Amino acid sequence: MYNDVDMVWLQDPFKYLEGRHDAYFMDDMTAVDLYLLPQAAFPTGGLYFKNKTWVKDTKGKHVIIHNNYIVGFEKKIKRFRDYGLWLVDDHALESPLGNLE
């Protein structure tokens, strides 16, 4: 949930988030100007990971790749690794003296 830092919760708001909507907004009495980001720069996982021709044709334009259209935490990590997109240092909490956790 996106929440401004100048808001306070007095009750549980999640009971109002019913249904299968993609987004919920409160009416701030101001116009909302939406902008759809370019697909070449912000592809879905369904496009990026399943269409090699599209990836080749749009190479160099990608900004954020959403690892969706796959279910499971481990599967997402594996797919990022398989595509060279896993940028997490898996050894960040290790030292010659042992685990730093």
UniProtKB/TrEMBL annotation:
GO terms for biological process: rhamnogalacturonan II biosynthetic process. InterPro entries: Nucl-diP-sugar_transferase (IPR005069), UDP-D-xylose:L-fucose_XylT (IPR052636). Residues 1-30 form the Nucleotide-diphospho-sugar transferase domain. One of its GO terms (cellular component) is Golgi apparatus. One of its GO terms (molecular function) is UDP-xylosyltransferase activity. PANTHER family: UDP-D-XYLOSE:L-FUCOSE ALPHA-1,3-D-XYLOSYLTRANSFERASE-RELATED (PTHR47032:SF1). This is Nucleotide-diphospho-sugar transferase domain-containing protein. It comes from Brassica cretica (Mustard).
